[in-house]
Every structure is written in structure tokens, then in C-alpha cells.
Amino acid sequence: MKYDVLIVGAGIAGASLAWHLAGKGLSILLIDSKPFTRFGDKPCGDAVSKAHFDDLGMPYPTGEQLENVIHGIKLYSPDKRTVWTVKGDGFELNSPAYVQRLTKEAMEKGVEVMDLTTAMKPIFEDGFVKGAVIYNRRTNQTMTVEAKVTVDATGYSISLRNKLPKELPITEDIDDKDADIAYREVTLTRDDMEDYDYLKIYVTQQYSPGGYWWIFPKGKNKVNVGLGIQGGMGYPPVQSFYEKYLKDIAPEVDRQKLLVKGGALVPTRRPLTTMVWNGIAAIGDSAFTVNPVHGGGKGSAMISAYCVSKSILSAFEKGDFSVQSLWDANLCYIEKYGAKQASLDLFRRFLQRLSDDDINFGMNKRVLKEEDIVEASTYGDLHMSAAEKAMRVLAGLSRPSLLFKLKTVADYMKRFKNLYYDYPKDPKEIMKWKARVEALTAEFINAIS
Predict the structure, then answer these.
(1) Residue 226: beta bridge partners?
(2) Cβ distance 338 to 283 under 8 Å?
(3) With contact defined as beta carbons under 8 Å apart, do 420 and 339 qualify?
(4) Higher model confidence: residue 396 or residue 149?
(5) d(Cα 14, Cα 8) in Å, to the nearest integer?
């Protein structure tokens, strides 16, 4: 079997890529290990900013694909005495319905789809990925698929690129501490919720160490409730936190009307050092594209798919599927999201070191303000003018070390973002650049310890 492009994984990233490439004159095979009716079915908060759809030219969710229209986020301090409101439009998705819509639209334009199909191993010859050996459970057949470009959209399992020779930069693995262990349930509520067009986030080290709780309404009386905790720390199982603290966080939930439940691992770090190599690309969770602070990954997965689609189309125009030809995917992603994501990785590391007392103090005394969070989440920057810093120092004299650390974090976030904007144009320089990233990360950790 021969195709121009083989996409392994039909989640939001893989389906978005197929949607972007469909109808462009390429032969494309999209496979997923799940049955078609479960494409896009992954434990997640399911919220996506409207801005991503607008920027990428993606269709808005409609009908059953759209469960709620969101107008902002309410962020609660650990003691719940301080609430920040950050406004912004978005959608609460029925993710499987939306992903299956994208897949169907791609199929209508010629993309072939195989469900219940797993990629067993990549075909690696002469330094290039040239397809994969796949197994279809529906037909009980093992097949060899040749492809000019193979895309790993397998999510956190990274089950394709991790079978390549380890000396390739694209095989980069993840440290357990740079991931969240998440669990969520979708259920009905006892009564209609107030402010059901706002997402709610609770930051508390006691209830969700290294992570946070979320309450994402899917309507007036339907809600997605979950939490993530930092991996690799030896914490108790995530479900134990859910059982212990659910009534305190979300007393309106009626677990007798449980609809869906499940857990997942979520990468919460800077992007994969390179999303492409000879004949291969990685997108979505497999490329570590999740926002390190709020753990949202659907929008950034869509961005990675968009960037890789542009790179693939350019490679076919040139007839060159080398890493040099595909390299623009990295530059596109860093410009649109990756530089911000990398700087937020530092902010995440800082937040995970704060106690609940620090967070309560910082929010109550407005050491950080809503505008700072908007600035950080939108651009990856923390800007503190001289006047603001002076006023915050006066307000926070009882805890000056927190203010000094915050200034340090802001400075390093700026340096880290600039380092990503200095991403190498030549793949031959990537390992030297990666060493600079690791050195600056180690310097930052030492500075805030």
C-alpha cells in the first residue's frame, strides 16, 4: 500500500491535519486504534478558545458538536476568598462529535480512514521514515504502508516516534514530573448552575498538588469536573483526590447521574525540540503541545496540525521530504504558540513550588492581577512596570521573597521566549540550541529554588 501521507491517530490533532490536507491532490491514509464512533474520545476539559478557530480557518462546532458557549474563566484562590474573572470567548466541545465531523469532511475529499488499526512500527531506511507497518483488528491483517511523510498523532503514548533510533532528536521523551495525571467525570447537576457560561478553575496544592481542579459547564445542568496532579512526585492516585474533595469543590454534582468518566496523562512542558525529521512529523500531545499552565491542549494541537500541513504541502511542491524541507513546521509553531508555551513552562515550574498560603496571599494582595494572567496566558510574558512593582512591594512587605521570586520568573520568561525566537533555521544546529535551552532551564530552577 502506498500513500503520500500516513497519519497515525485520529484525535483532534490527526483529524485537523487530515482536514487541512484533504482535497489538495495528495493520497492520505488516516488510522486510529479506536472504532470510528470513538474517534476524539479522550478524557479532557473539552474547552477551546474561539480565537484558535478564527486564526486557523477551522469550522466552528455546531449542533451536537457544541455543548456550551463560554465567555470567560473564573479563577479561585485556595481559600476561595478571592476570585479573578478573565473574559474571553470559547467553546465547550463534544469532542468526539467534532473530531468525527472533521474526519467525515476529510473523507468526503478523498482521505481514506481505517479504524481499529494500530501502527506497529515505523519503516526506517537510509535515515528516513518511509511509512509504517500497521495492523487492522477489523480484518485481522498486518499491512505495510509506504508513505512520503508519516505523522505521529498518537497522543501521550508517542507510540510511533518512540520506536525510531534514539539518536534522532524527534524521539525526545518526557520526564514524569513534566506531565499531569488527570481524571474527570461528566455528569448532571442537581439544579441549574449560575454563570454556566464561565469556566471555573480552583488552584490548590492541598486538593490538587502541582495542578488544579476544573468545573467546565456543558450547559445549565451538565458539567465536566476534573483535576490534574503533577506526575513523578509519588502523590496518591488522582482518583483519591477526586473522591476526597469533590463535594467541597463541586457540591452541585449529582454522581447518580454520571455520564462519562476517565483519566489521562497530559504533557505539561515546553514543545518537542523538533516536530519534524526526515519523512516524519509529530503533532498534538505527541509533540508536547499542551499549555503547561492550564493543561489545555486542543487549541495548540490544532495549531501544530496547521503548521505541519503547510510544511507537508510545501515539501510535496519541492518533492523533498527531508528534515530541511519540513523544518518550517517548527518555525510556524514557535511563532504561533511554541515560544509562549516554552515561557509558560517556567511559570508552571514556579507555580508548582508555591504553597496554598503563597497563592492566597498573592491573589488577595494582588501581587499578581487578572491582567497579568491574561498577559501571561496570551503572550507568555509577565510585564511589571516600575510603578506597579513599587506598589506591589508596599502591598506585600509581609512576604517580600514572593515578590522577588516573581520578578525573577518574569525576567527568565522573557529570556526563554527570546531563546525560542532564536530557534535555528538549520536543523544541523538543533542540538546546540537544545543545550542552550537545557542550560537556561537549569539556571532558572536554581534561581527560584
Answers:
(1) 184, 214
(2) no
(3) yes
(4) 149
(5) 7
| pLDDT tens string 272-299 | 999 999 999 999 999 999 999 989 999 9
Angstrom distance (rounded) from CA 32 to CA 102? 14
Report how far residue 18's alpha carbon sits from residue 30's, in angstroms, rounded to the nearest whole number.
7
> Domains, the chain, ranges and CATH?
2-46+95-173+272-326 (3.50.50.60), 67-91+176-267 (3.30.9.10), 343-448 (no CATH)
pLDDT digits (tens, 9 = 90+) for 137-148: 999 999 999 999
Taking residue 95's Cβ as centre, other Cβ atoms within 10 Å add up to 23
Give SS3 for 15: helix
Longest CA–CA separation in the chain, Å: 70
Which residue is listed with cell 482535497? 23
User: Contact, 4 vs 296, CB < 8 A?
Assistant: no
Question: Are the C-beta atoms of 181 and 227 separated by less than 8 Å?
Answer: no
At 278, list the grid cell. 526526515
pLDDT class for 402, splitting at 50, 70, 90?
A: confident
Cβ-based neighbours of 173, under 8 Å, separated by 6 or more: 158, 162
Residue with cell 488544579: 212
Give the integer Cα–Cα distance in Å for 352 and 204: 10
